[in-house]
Amino acid sequence: MIPFPLEPTILKRPEIPPLPKTMPIVHKKPLGPRENADWDLDPMTHTIEEEDEMLDGLSWIDNDTDVGSKRVSSNDTISEPPTIHSGRNSATSSTAEIPLILDHSCIGPDGMPRVDELHLSESVPILLDIHAAKKERPPPPPDPFLLELQKKENAGLHALCEHLADVPEALLDPIQFFEKRLWALVGCQWLTFGKQLQSPAHDTLLHARPEDGRKVLHLHGPVADGWVLAAKYPNATFYSVSSEDVEYPEDLYSMPSNHHHIYTPSVSSPIPFPDDYFDVVVTRTLSSVVKSSQLESVLRESLRILRPGGWLELHTIDPTLTRAGNITKHWIESRVLAPMENDFFSSKPSDRILHLMQDLGYHKVKNARIALPTFPISRPLSPGGGAGGELDAQNVMVYLGRHFYEELYGQFLRAGHIGAGSPSWWWDSMAVRQECQRENTCFGLTISFGRKTR
């Protein structure tokens, strides 16, 4: 096995044309991570064989380990964010970039998951019979919720900024939170090349036929997440399992017809489905809803209900920050980490989850880490008047990081709050702001996935 590099290599990805079903480009050049980030993949069209070494844009760390090999830690796989004044490929300037970084991919001897090896993809047609297609019935009309979602996707970066702007999550009622969460998921989709799922299951579900019977479990997350997944992959059946009451704006949106809610008494309850039932299990909230001692049982249950060839995909933002200064560290340790540890939650959930996936027997375990800036970096306006769009791209990433961070860890901040009024966040402190801007402090978003082989 190729050893993991201590200093990840940062390679540049040139601009690529926008993908289908993503936000329309309203500027002369695309904005955002596609051109302002450090990518390692060539945007040209690839053959099936070439795609075996690629997973659409993100740079993945291969975590399959042999006896005696070095474990992968999130501290090892995330490199220091470049400053906003370094690099290339800016939408408005040849000398500027947004501090979004992706780690170098360490490919093991077996390489990335091959398309022709995946049980999930065996029934996906590569070539369509034109004559047979003509005889098929016309596709059903688009789901009403999908149409509303597409309006948000087409609204542009500035609209994303306006809807994600800092309004404390604690002040939002469930309906307002549902709406804001939809905008956050649209922003996250923009960040990850128009994909809601990053594992190889994305292509399987995207090309699924109704008769394939694909099933996906959305585990312990906001109801909006399950709806968006169901809308983006309409030929699969989705089940959202939660121990909380479900509230959504019935007068504004209709639930996707392929989505179902399942209630469980607690997050530690057995998942109420038989063995080998789901093609995909996805969750974005384990770090704050499942205690450290319960993580193993939840991941083991997920492995049980996955079909052979199925995928588990997890998104995690750690409560600790990358390149945090002393003021920021002290703020987080005293107001967030202390209440978390008192309630027996992991302070390093991305590492804990990664290690458990390896120990429990998930195969092809991979992870990518994305650094999202905690504050927009101010700079002089670029000639040509394009800096507004560039600033919108920065702010979208800042607001995304804050939204996911606050949604995950707001309960611990409120639990440890002493005094009158609502607690404030570290980004409201001028001292923390100045330190984070000086140190280029970032949120660490980790996307991990692993496969069940038998």
TrEMBL record:
Residues 71-92 have a biased composition (Polar residues). Residues 68-92 are annotated as: Disordered. Residues 267-312 form the Methyltransferase type domain. Pfam families: Methyltransf_11. GO terms for molecular function: S-adenosylmethionine-dependent methyltransferase activity. This is Methyltransferase type 11 domain-containing protein. The lineage of its organism: Eukaryota, Fungi, Dikarya, Ascomycota, Pezizomycotina.
